[in-house]
Write a structure and sequence with these properties.
single chain; 449 residues; mainly alpha; Growth Hormone, Chain: A; 2 domains; 76% helix; Ion_channel_UNC-93; transmembrane; MFS_trans_sf; transmembrane helix
Length: 449
């Protein structure tokens, strides 16, 4: 297999591995608060929102050290170990206890920081200036198939149910744990890139020197990665992109946890309210996959750069927020186990709710594919630190959003996303214009990004 073919193979395996893992984890996130609400009349006393807040809070802090860890052990092994911790978190729901639930939340926060830093490193190592847009799209589209499969199972398994029994819960989470482990094992199929040797290099001499210098080199790489993360954090481009990244963190919280909870709390949806959570996840996945395919795989045909895609993303999200504001009761995010009988500005419509799910996914893919692309383009030599900063900002904002989701009515959550989304779009435009100017100065074709 050619070098280019091997790189494409690695990107596909990376995407498929994440697809399996996040089929389990994102499905878990969509139903966690609903399942926990049914558990809180037992000895279990926990909150899905609080758990996610812990996960993203720890994730954000762990991103300070994740580039060093990836530099020491390598991206492949980092992703394998992280995948094991993802599986353990999901397995906690099979027989949940409060202490295990929150302990697993801390551990998966650390694992997630390492996983996503390693993913960004792997994506960049297997891409170049001409393929980063295509590869970002392939990875994102494959990853978002996870929203289809897991939520389809939940929709079919929970159809017609208004209460989630112990047997229902165990069956779902045993299946999700196995699926997560499958994705973890697939990381072993990623092929390492061959090191290039100068003519006349002596293999045996290099091996001896490599062994004697290994520990020292790993420590030096770890320290260098940490220093680089701090340095990159304060560059103009990274500070501007951090506003856009912050918006993706808020949106991630909303569509992966809050919106599904809102749908499941609307009593006017009748016996379908719980199964609609799964259907909503499917429509989010369809939007994500469509966006990843169109704006990633077809990026080479665009001569306008990334800005039009981001503009489309914010417009799609604003339409979704407007419709959700009219369709969903204001107290839906914090409704009790009995649900809510309130009505917003229209009778709650399942069709409008599913349309909004699709729009949320489509808009999210617009932002994330372009952020992955521009980070890989601007920081091709420092991919691990750059992606660690990206996940740091995204996760800390997701943690804050999960925390206030315990208390804020729907209208205030939507207003926060509108304001941050508008600012994030402006800052992204600024960085993209700078990237276009740099390409023009080098005499490169703007469509190559």
């Amino acid at each position: 297999m050619s070098s280019e073919g091997k790189k494409l193979f690695n990107i596909i395996i990376l995407g498929v591995s994440f697809m399996f893992m996040f089929t389990a984890f994102q499905s878990c996130g969509n139903i966690a608060q609903t399942v926990i609400t049914n558990l809180n009349n037992t000895d279990f006393h926990g909150s899905g929102y609080t758990s996610m807040s812990i996960i993203y809070g720890v994730l954000s802090a762990s991103n300070l050290i994740s580039p060093s860890l990836v530099a020491v052990v390598g991206p492949q092994f980092s992703m394998v170990v992280s995948g094991v911790f993802y599986s353990l978190y999901i397995a906690v729901f099979i027989q949940p206890t409060t202490w295990a639930f929150y302990t697993a939340s801390v551990l998966i926060g650390i694992a997630a920081a390492v996983l996503w830093t390693a993913q960004g490193n792997c994506l960049t190592e297997n891409s170049d200036e001409n393929t980063i847009g295509r590869n970002s799209g392939i990875f994102w589209a494959l990853l978002q198939f996870s929203l289809i499969f897991g939520n389809l199972y939940i929709y079919l398994a929970w159809q017609g149910k208004t209460h989630i029994s112990e047997s229902d819960r165990r069956t779902v989470f045993i299946a999700l744990t196995v699926i997560s482990l499958v994705g973890t094992v697939l990381f072993f199929l990623i092929r390492k890139q061959e090191d290039t040797k100068a003519p006349g290099d002596d293999d045996s001499t290099n091996e001896i020197l490599g062994e004697s210098m290994s520990a020292r080199n790993k420590m030096m790489r770890a320290v260098a990665a940490f220093k680089k993360s701090i340095t990159l954090s304060f560059t103009k481009e990274m500070l501007l992109l951090s506003v856009t990244t912050a918006y993706t963190g808020l949106v991630l919280t909303f569509f992966s946890g809050v919106y599904g909870t809102c749908i499941g709390a609307v009593n006017r949806f009748g016996s379908e309210e719980k199964s609609l959570i799964g259907l909503s996840g499917i429509f989010i996945g369809v939007g994500e996959i469509l966006g990843g395919g169109v704006f990633g795989l077809l990026s080479k045909k665009s001569r306008s750069g990334r800005n039009p895609v981001v503009m489309l993303g914010i417009l799609v999200h604003f339409i979704a927020f407007y419709l959700i504001f009219f369709n969903m009761p204001n107290d839906a995010p914090i409704a009790p186990m009995e649900g809510t009988d309130q009505v917003a500005y229209m009778i709650p419509s399942k069709e409008v709710a599913m349309l909004c799910s699709f729009l949320l996914g489509l808009g999210d893919s617009c932002f994330n594919t372009q952020l992955l692309s521009i980070l890989g383009f601007l920081y091709s030599e420092d991919s691990a630190p750059a992606f660690a900063i990206f996940k740091f900002v995204q996760s800390i904002c997701a943690a804050v959003a999960y925390f206030y989701s315990n208390y804020f009515l729907l209208q205030w959550q939507l207003l926060i996303m509108v304001l941050v989304g508008f600012l994030g779009t402006i800052t992204f435009f600024t960085v993209e214009w700078g990237a276009a100017a740099a390409l023009a100065a080098r005499g490169s074709d703007y469509s190559s990004i």
